[in-house]
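Lab notebook, design round three. We kept the backbone fixed and only want residue identities now. Task for the bench partner: fill in a sequence for the structure below.
Input structure tokens:
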């Protein structure tokens, strides 16, 4: 009922009919009464013939297989299947889908514009969420290790799970470690994974460019002759010796004569 009403409000087109199987949840009760009140036709498929509603059945199979793959890859248990199904649905609505002989993005067709995909992250990866000041002590940790479970349903952020306390919460201030899944995190000690992350950070943040490296001479690779030349060049000459060298008359080239003032002309 909620889905039918929200789709009508968002699209501007009223819902005229709904097709379901003959499951007990769709027959009788409040649903039938509400559909009659809204003037919506309720179409039923033939018993034990899912091909009568082939589009919906194939979509359900695709979403279920995607959710199964997400749970296996992430190492999360089957108890997280609702979040895996929702993440699979969100991703499927944002990728190209073949309809007849055409290809289009479902959510783009529905909204009339390209949907954003920059907030999609790897399902089941580890993440570090910022802990707001009201939820921590003065000396408490300002970040918390958690698991990413997809986009939040009621806020513009991500749904996260803290395994130690088995708590779900939404957050927007999150740093993702998409190459480490929950299954790998659970099998390895936390200190070992943290050490790997620190090594990666040190490697990328503190490494200097190759052209800035300066190699200092070592005792084994020092040439005595070169050291003597350097010492001779660096020797400070006596002032009198410098004056005598400056007063010496330079030798003239051939066919040149000296004139007054010590200047040369050619």
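Proposed sequence:
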């Amino acid at each position: 009922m909620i889905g039918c009403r929200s789709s009508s409000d968002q699209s501007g087109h009223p819902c005229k009919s709904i097709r379901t199987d003959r499951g007990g949840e769709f027959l009788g009760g409040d649903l039938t009464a509400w559909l009659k009140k809204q003037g919506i036709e309720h179409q039923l498929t033939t018993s034990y013939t899912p091909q009568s509603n082939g589009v919906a059945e194939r979509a359900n199979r695709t979403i279920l297989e995607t959710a199964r793959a997400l749970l296996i890859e992430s190492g999360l248990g089957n108890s997280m299947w609702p979040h895996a199904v929702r993440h699979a649905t969100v991703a499927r609505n944002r990728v190209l889908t073949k309809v007849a002989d055409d290809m289009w993005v479902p959510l783009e067709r529905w909204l009339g514009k390209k949907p954003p995909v920059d907030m999609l992250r790897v399902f089941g990866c580890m993440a570090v969420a910022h802990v707001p000041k009201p939820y921590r002590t003065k000396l408490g940790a300002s970040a918390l290790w958690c698991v990413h479970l997809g986009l939040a349903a009621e806020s513009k952020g991500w749904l996260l799970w803290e395994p130690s306390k088995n708590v779900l919460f939404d957050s927007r201030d999150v740093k993702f470690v998409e190459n480490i899944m929950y299954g790998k995190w659970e099998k390895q000690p936390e200190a070992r994974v943290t050490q790997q992350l620190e090594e990666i950070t040190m490697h990328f943040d503190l490494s200097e460019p190759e052209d800035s490296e300066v190699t200092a001479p070592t005792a084994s690779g020092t040439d005595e002759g070169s050291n003597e030349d350097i010492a001779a060049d660096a020797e400070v000459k006596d002032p009198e010796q410098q004056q005598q060298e400056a007063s010496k008359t330079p030798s003239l080239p051939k066919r040149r004569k000296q004139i007054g003032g010590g200047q040369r002309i050619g």
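Keep this in mind before ordering anything: Residues 1-44 form one domain.
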